[in-house]
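User: quick one, fold this
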Amino acid sequence: MALLIERLSKRYGNGIQALRDVSITIGRGMFGLLGPNGAGKSTLMRTIATLQAPDSGTIRLDGIDAGAEPDRLRALLGYLPQEFGLYPRMSAEATLDHFATLHGVVEPVARRERVVALLQQMNLLDARRQHVGSFSGGMRQRLGIAIALAGAPRLLIVDEPTAGLDPSERSRLLDLLADVAERAVVILSTHIVEDVQDVCSQVAIMSGGQIVLTGAPDSLTRSLLGSVWEGAVPRADADAIRSRSTVIGSRRVRGLVALRVYSKVAMDSPFVSAQPCLEDVYMRTVATA
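Assistant:
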């Protein structure tokens, strides 16, 4: 099972080139798509989901051409956009029943079993009769995942699913997505590096509508060994360092500025060699793209 994207481009009517010749192959499992706001992640997700047509290029899932046979691909697709609407006075159970019907689960007993199984999987069974308008952010996102899974998709796309969630809800949602990824292609689009660090076997970084780096998180992190330095300096020194070096992290610490810097050349004291992480890879890639 694989999603094959070849030379995908998209320009909007206002002249913005949102996608530039994007090519990538995504296999079964969890795939992380990282990038800053405006990088083109949401445009790529909407295009894969057949909500908009590209100007050029192709999308294929197991040989199904999304451009030529969009309905066939949609039958295998689950999609959770960054923003989605629900009827606030409907219960979780009724909402999920409605979407299961739309996904073609029309036989009442089978649909009831699907709804109960999804509510249980999302830890929402006890809240099944609760109006969704009263749900917390995490509960709402979990219901959104259940809706996306109602048709038992082979491709699941989730766009910024953990934005605004507290750490426990983020962890719970990512665990749920990891379970789904054992039997489907799951694309997790986010700007939160921590979300993909441990759960994604492959990651791509987007910038300016292009895929600028791909690989396994551990491999990408190892590529920066010996090239990441950290130290705390006065603000004036920090400004000087920024002007001549690639700063990939910065925060204030007790009146000083703690910097993480990408440099192939050893830096002078107070900087010391630091263990790189995926966020360093991301920040360095975006800074130099």
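User: anything notable?
Assistant: Residues 38 and 208 are 7 Å apart (CA to CA).
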